[in-house]
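Summary for the funding panel

The consortium committed to producing paired sequence-structure records for every protein in the target list. Below we show the first two records in order, beginning with the earlier of the two.
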Amino acid sequence: MLEKDGKAQITAFDEVDHVFSGTKKYRGYRKFIEKPKLKSLSQANNGYLIIRCVLTVVKESRTEVNRNTAVVPQSNLQDQLCQVWKDGQGADVTFSVGGQLFEAHRCLLAAWFLVFKAELFGPMKEKETQCIKIDDIDPEIFEALLHFIYTDSMLVDEHYKESKPAKLHHLQVASDRYGLDRLKVMCESKLSECIDVETVATTLVLAEQHHCKDLKEACIEFMAPRNVLQAAMATDGFKHLVASCPLVMKELLDMVSRSG
């Protein structure tokens, strides 16, 4: 509060913290000063009243929490789709893979498997055919493909863990064949984590043939030390690497020479 001549008048008020909210209908703060105090100050200055406002800008943004906001539950769509797949509810197509039958839903498969879209919905489809036979893929790998389509996640069980990276090799080949790019990258990531002397050459061939750049670089870097390379050279996978990927061998030898 200021006097008539503009000098500050020291007046003590109770300190009150207040955060202005845009949700209120009024502007300002109603409890700034009591009316009797305001009247006495006005009378002391012959009816004059000057208020000096000091604006403080707080850089940190304030987040208002609405205590009445309902908590939105996490989506369980993947679990529901997985259960529909396992129960076979509404399945309208069957795959015969290595003597095993897998039921599925045409619409969902067509959305993921572009290679099946023409066969399932195209003009050349056989309306009477409800079973599609696939001969060149392992039933476990095909089941893993279906699991990914219905759940957007990799199928991991104890048998799968024990057999990797062999199963991961087959799953990556299948995912590349059927155009499941996300699953392909997931396999690539898992294979990068389990590179060892026994399988690194085979994994490197796979990475080269299926255009997995990051996995290829990880394998070459793993074999760069001379002692690791010598151990890998004793494996059957390395013989296959030499025969099928001569350009990769050149890259590998260049890396070894640079590493000393």
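The next record, for a separate protein in the list, is shown here:
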Amino acid sequence: MSIYLNPLVERLTRRGRWPSVRAALWLAFGLGLAGLAVTTLATLRMESDQLDLSSTILLALAWLVTILSPPITSIVAIILVSRDASSEMYELLHLTTLSEAVLVKGYVFATLHRVRVLLALLVGLMPALAVGMVQVSILVAVIFYSMMLNYSAYLQDELYRISSGIDPAYVTGPALACMAIAIGLWGLNWPAAALGVGLALRWRGRVIVTIIAPMVTLLVTLLIAISLSVLVMLLTSDDMSRSYWGQPYYGAIMLAISLFALLAPCALGAGMTRLAQRWAREP
């Protein structure tokens, strides 16, 4: 069954609340252009040992929204399912031959539709998040070498100039990996919605559900974000690793990190959706 023919989706997304999906897409597009312009300007004015204030604020905001969005999505899913499960329409749906798969997928899609403004904000902040992560990686390299080798201020500027002008393969790889991490963190809202739906269907009306789901999604988001970001940062900052591994292997490592960041949320989302269907089937 197509998701748009799902009776739950049709009923729960019928009300035309502002903003529409089209308006949310335009919001994401506008925020993305604005964030890219700010981060690009900040990169051009970037000092050897510090980030521009506007870039720092934008990066902090991007990280805050990215980390908090999956827990918020799970809470929205729990509230949506809890309210709808106590309605007469839900009882009528249960009298039909509606399968658990259709039920869970309908609630998950309706949840993501409810948080469309949050998802649009995440898309708009993706360029700032990716560029900011690359900037931080460069700064870590500068600070590390200045501390270890006791460079003077002049040599720090020279080191920054050299690190900014290295082989494009060594800059493109981390940049693409950081963008993949940003997209992957955005995709964690799918498993977060599925987790909230599954827990709400399995343990209806229990307050503990509203605590477990946000905590689990927050921990998973932090684990993936911190581990992948630190890994990319270390590989980008350590010039010895690039020399040791060589350009082909270095690019392969960055590609592997990018693929993992993109595919892990999809695997988690599919797995949580199947698990939620099993929970919905249990009495």
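Regarding this second record: Residues 3-281 form one domain. The radius of gyration is 22 Å.
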